[in-house]
Amino acid sequence: MYNDTKKSLGQHWLNDEASLDMICQAADVSMGDMVLEIGPGQGSLTDKLVAAGANVTAVELDDDLILSLKRRFGGQPVTIVHGNILKFDLSTLPSNYKVVANIPYYLTSKLIRIMTEAANPFHDAVLLVQKEVAERVAAKAGKMSALSVATQFYCDVGLGPVIAADKFTPPPKIDSQLLLLNFSGPKFACDTKHFFQLVHAGFGERRKKLSNSLSGGLHIPKDQAEALLQAAGLSTDVRAQELTLAEWGRLYNTWRGN
Q1: Pairing of β 168-169 and β 78-82
Q2: Neighbouring C-beta atoms of residue 253, cutoff 10 Å
Q3: pTM above the 0.85 mark?
Q4: How far apart are CA 245 and CA 188, in angstroms?
């Protein structure tokens, strides 16, 4: 088995049996499920998914792992794909597939965006990410970010068990946590391009009031930004992280004249 890890790919092997079982249980994997596994690494989680009865498509970027993975899972219901998950064609998967992955921090926001905006989105996803990232995605009003707004716009979000850093080889600097996503589709009707333009403008300068951020991000006078907030029933002193998803929807409709 190939045992070396690559720092550039954020690799940390998870071979702890109890933790691997916990991930499969959180994903509720059962016989016949189609599972997309991202970064199978040595194949420890893949083994568990197959044992639960899943058909697995495992996408691995690391050249050095491909041969050993193909040998290990030859003759089993596992398709090993050598490639970058950010470029993988999700339309090749059947509908209602599940996603199970232990992913590095640098990949999280891009991966969630690609998966939620895909023409063939997942049904459920269980992502093992850094604990602080999981908490950021699941945040409520008061601690929202562009990432939490974008994810919660498409998904019902929950948090699963924490997996301690010492369960990994090599251990990462902080603990990880399971991020649970159920794809529900857009929470309200909008032009998503313009909606996320508004959101990113709002979070462009997090320490400032939303009126200032919108003024700079949307290239409008500050008094116009304040008038926009008032028309949406929001305080001119509010900050982006304090808005609920519903309030972002109201602000969008006011901005676009809906």
Answers
A1: unpaired
A2: 16
A3: yes
A4: 10
- Expressed as residue numbers, the domain containing 213 is 192-256
Quick check: is 77 in a domain? yes
Asked if residue 160 is part of any domain, the answer here is: yes
CA separation for the pair 58, 101 (Å, rounded): 10
Q: Residue 51 corresponds to which tokens in the numbers above?
A: 């044992």
At 156-185, the pLDDT tens digits run 999 999 999 999 988 889 999 999 999 999
**In this structure, which long-range contacts are made by residues 4-7, counting pairs with CB atoms below 8 Å and at least 24 apart in sequence?**
4/64, 5/169, 5/170, 6/62
How far, in Å, CA of 254 to CA of 229, rounded? Answer: 8
Task: Provide the 8-state DSSP code for 256.
Answer: H
- Write the pLDDT tens digit of every residue in 198-216: 999 999 987 899 999 999 9
* Residue 133 covered by a domain: yes
Number of structural domains found in the chain: 2
Token reading at 246: 């519903």
pLDDT band at 258 (very low <50, low <70, confident <90, very high): low
